[in-house]
Amino acid sequence: MCPLTPPCMVPYKAAPESRGKRGYRKTKTLTANSPNSSIVDRDRRSFFIQKAKLLAKTKMLFKSALLATTLCLSATAAANTNAPVVTDNDDVTYYAQLQPKDNTTVRGAVTILPKPSGVGVLVSAHFWGIPDNEQQLVYHIHQKPVPKDGNCYSTGAHLDPYGRGDATPCDINAPQTCQVGDLSGKHGPIWAPDNEEFTTTYTDWFLSNVEGEPAFFGNLSLVVHAADNSRLACGNFVELK
To answer: pLDDT, tens digit, for every residue of 163-217?
Structure first.
């Protein structure tokens, strides 16, 4: 037995580490009363605030990109429905005369001639027998010929090779945006005082007299509509030789 006085002393023995029930070392946890708890809370709040700002900015950029893409696609779609100027028309003339109908006095004809340059065509329209009580009449080139029975309702819709549709009216100041066959929409309707005839001549840049082209009209029909859009009279285009 060693005395409690030097040089004999009891060897130092380290206290055992504090461990949990499963033998894992316990770690010190910061509590609300810990001196560093406010720093941790502040850093945590700052982290979540920055994360929220980044998420909001990402959403805003995504919405902006989506809107830009939508506008671009809309503009592209609108551009694709515009009719191109026809620059290669042949030296050929077409003529359409309205077939007589018992239910209307409207008569008339449209002649479509080539231009020397081959760019566009020259349209000459002449109508008479317009009823005194009629408002403006409209006329179009339709996508099918008049059948043998003369039924104007069998001529289909307007000539519209570029898919513009007729959901919105034609803008006379932007004829390239109109249906190719909407002659009165692009150049004005039929109107005349009582007992007078209507005559007009104009250049249409978007009609083609070349068979096989999208805007070719030579085997189609001319249809005149009343103010209520009913079909008053119609006739087929034929080539004048």
So the answer is: 999 899 999 999 999 999 999 999 999 999 888 999 999 999 999 999 999 999 9
Query: Is CATH 2.60.40.200 what the domain over 93-240 is classified as, yes or no?
Result: yes
CA distance 186 to 142: 15
The CA-atom distances, in angstroms, between 198 and each of 32, 136, 182, 188 are 94, 11, 18, 12
Spatial contact of 201 and 122, defined as CB atoms under 8 Å apart: yes
**Main-chain phi, psi angles of 42, to 5 degrees:** -65, -45
pTM: 0.68
Domain boundaries, the chain: 22-81, 93-240
Collapsing DSSP states into helix, strand and coil, what is residue 76? helix
Q: Cα–Cα distance between 16 and 150 in angstroms, integer?
A: 112
| Residue with the two structure tokens 């006739």 | 235
Task: Tokens 């946890």: give the residue.
Answer: 29
pLDDT (tens digit per residue) in 67-118: 555 454 444 444 468 999 999 999 999 999 999 999 999 999 999 999 999 9
Q: Residue 175 phi/psi, 5° resolution?
A: -60, -25
3-class state of residue 127 by DSSP: strand
